[in-house]
Amino acid sequence: MHDSVTCVFVHGWAMNSAVWDDCIAQLPDWINSVVVDLPGHGTMADIEANTLDDYVKAIVPLVHRPVLWVGWSLGGLAVLRLAELYPQRVASALLIATNPCFVTQENWPYAVDAKVFDQFASDLTRDQEKTIRRFLALQVKGLPDAMKVVRQLQKSIQSRGQAATKALISGLEILLETDLRNNLNLIESPLYWMLGARDSLVPGELADALKTKYQQENVHLYEKASHAPFISQRDDFIKQLLVIAEKLR
Question: pTM of the full predicted structure?
């Protein structure tokens, strides 16, 4: 029997570690899965964090050797920053629906308008439940089984508790302000990307930009996937994860 591979899963904005449960249940037993709630989310709702580096500080003590990290969306930004600051903890990283810069800039059309996040921030203070519902709807836009995926996401939010409003607002600020594009070439660990062609938060065009502008070799764009491909395209996600994990055995 080969050695096991440890894999740490980091969720996205407004979510918590329960989003991974169904995927983890289907992984072989040589994968040792570790899930984490980001500060302000799920079981860590009382813990405060205001910056991306605060997230990194919260997740770095989970392991003391190089492992495989899986980061989704905002969680992917935390994993990218972790790989830059603590290369000795990152054997490789799988970044799902993650953009090194989530907001459009000059020469960076592969993102969303800052207004999208600004709108969420102003809505949050008025009606958190409704804003999260809208955010979930946006994540599954274009999927044939959209409602099924939304229900799955809602179920996972409920199972570990809602995120604190303050954490949601600082999470949006992190999405608005973070630009790790120039950090990509500082990262030594192998990076793998899983993107959805129907994603309305991370445009599919990002796949080509990562390959051509940032020499990222391992970029997979799934034609039918939206912002939560590990739920809507679970088999593809597990297949991609196992290919990466096998290399670490």
Answer: 0.96
